[in-house]
Write a structure and sequence with these properties.
This protein is mainly α and 367 residues long. It is built from 14 helices and 2 strands. Helix content is 72%, strand content 2%. It starts with a helix and ends in a 6-residue tail after the last helix.
Amino acid sequence: MKTNTSGKKGISIGCFVVGALLLVVALWLDFLATNGQDFLLTANFNLSMHRGAMLIIGAILILVGLYIFPTETHHRNIINFIFLFPLLFTFFVTVIIPLILGIGYSFTDWDGLRINNVVGLDNYIRAFQSKEFLYSTLLTALFVIVNMVVVNVVAFLLALLCSTKLKAVGFFRASYFLPNLIGGIVLGYIWQFAFSKVLVNYTAALFDYPYSILSDTKMAFMAIIIVYVWQYAGYIMLIYTTGLNTVPREVIEAAAIDGANAIDTLFRIKLPMIASTTTICLFLTLTNAFKMFDVNLALTGGNGSVPDFLGSKLTNGTEMLALNIYSTAINRNDYSLGQAKAVIFFIILAAVSILQVKVTSRNEVEM
């Protein structure tokens, strides 16, 4: 019995080690091939062409090694891990590894294909010296603050409406949520048509003066806010509706017996008791507003005139931070600078999100 157990343990460890080595080699080959350093290329064989197969085989060997490992007390935990492994592996390959590589690329002169030199903090210095980047950061901060207030207020009012006993309340919920199902690019082009064609024709007919709010930088910024609120308020409304439905009916009835009116019930009972829901909604609104990209790209493309910002005239008057990073890397072909901006963006978003959750979670109460 001991010999059989020792044999299984040896096979398990062997599978695990070989699988781990294949994973490391496959990822290393992918890194080298991405940067034009495929030194294993020969006339008859290119090892990097098989890195995908090596990655899959390595993952399978690790799972097999875990499964056949001779243990009784931890076997259930191993089985649970095996079921979670595809999701964890996918998240690791598509999120964690690119994040680590991206941080590394930001310290180099990476041009999207290869790395020639390590430049240290030069890309970060260039980022903070870029007035367009600083302007986009401030504009994004303003956009986030405005939308956190407007979206949550509108969504909460809609949730109050949809929590009543009105007829066809399900229809109203579906109608308010419907804009969230439309893709941001499509949504942006639809509203661009509305602002540039429908509104222009309306003002021309009514005032004999064709006017598009997208032609003015400040009004175009307001247009982006309108579209974002229209798209996202329905989604946040559903979360608030769920939170309001969890407030015990007995508490509301007891407050009514004690003489509390609708306003008192709302501010002294419902809002404190759904503080955890508010925390979630604020977090989702904050992160999604920070990451605004598709609507910004389709609606204005980031264009807009800024006459004076730190002594310079800018032409990216409606360009949010995510779009600025995209434009730097793709349109200007400066991938290393774009990656440095993305790292700064990640740090800002992570710090603000953690701070927001800590501050708002203090007001949560247990049911």
